[in-house]
Amino acid sequence: GQNIDQPTEMTATEGAIVQINCTYQTSGFNGLFWYQQHAGEAPTFLSYNVLDGLEEKGRFSSFLSRSKGYSYLLLKELQMKDSASYLCAVTSGGYNKLIFGAGTRLAVHP
Amino acid sequence: KAGVTQTPRYLIKTRGQQVTLSCSPISGHRSVSWYQQTPGQGLQFLFEYFSETQRNKGNFPGRFSGRQFSNSRSEMNVSTLELGDSALYLCASSRDYNNEQFFGPGTRLTVL
């Protein structure tokens, strides 16, 4: 089967750094996506990792270790607008079947 | 470039009825995937269409069906609605597989 685990909730302070972890167990792994979803809105793409290592994109970075079934999303210089749910999703077996984790609700406080 | 559009945005139906939701992908995108999002189950994959063919299907009953037209627009249909079908239905488009999927705003379905 397939299983994706992420923390349910996290809190952080404006200007700080936060790391959201994701562990997965899946057969035929292809890649791992991170999406951001604000309440009442559609998910928006943040990053896609296929190979091991760190991908940096502005204030957001994502890391993948395929051998450990582990990824994290790193958010730097947190802003109030970063308060949202962060969804980890994997694709396996080809095509576009995204298997999502339950999401991590991040609350950024002043 | 216009994003993914979904119609209608909100829908209220009663048990036993059927519903059809529509999704127009980003121009040039040939893959359309459908997802159901509920507070209890999160985001769950329904099915994916590419060039009018269903390429992949999630674990939903046969009451959930879909199709894709030659212009890549897609529809999903839910027959014999149940209370548990109340959810946000999202479609996502991409160029092909393992590419970034762009989500539409969703259709919020309420079944009374």
Task: Describe this structure as you would to a colleague.
- The complex is a heterodimer of chains A (110) and B (112).
- With 110 residues, chain A is mainly β.
- Chain A has no helices and 11 strands.
- Chain A has strands at 3-5, 9-13, 18-25, 29-37, 44-49, 53-57, 60-65, 70-75, 84-92, 98-100, 104-109.
- In chain A, strand 6 (53-57) and strand 7 (60-65) form a beta hairpin.
- Chain A is globular.
- Chain B has 112 residues and is mostly beta strands.
- In chain B, the strands form 2 sheets. In chain B, strands 2, 4, 5, 6, 9, 10 and 11 form a 7-stranded mixed β-sheet that branches.
- The mean pLDDT of chain B is 94.
- The A-B interface holds A 30-31, 33, 35, 41-45, 48, 50, 87, 89, 91, 94-103 and B 31, 33, 35, 42-45, 48, 50, 55-56, 58, 90, 92, 94, 97-106.
| Unreliable spans of chain B | none
Structural class of chain A: mainly beta
Anisotropy-based shape of chain B:
globular
Terminal CA distance of chain A reads 41 Å
Question: Could you name the key traits of this structure?
Answer:
heterodimer; A: 110 residues; mainly beta; six-stranded mixed β-sheet; 60% strand; globular; B: seven-stranded mixed β-sheet; four-stranded antiparallel β-sheet; 11 strands
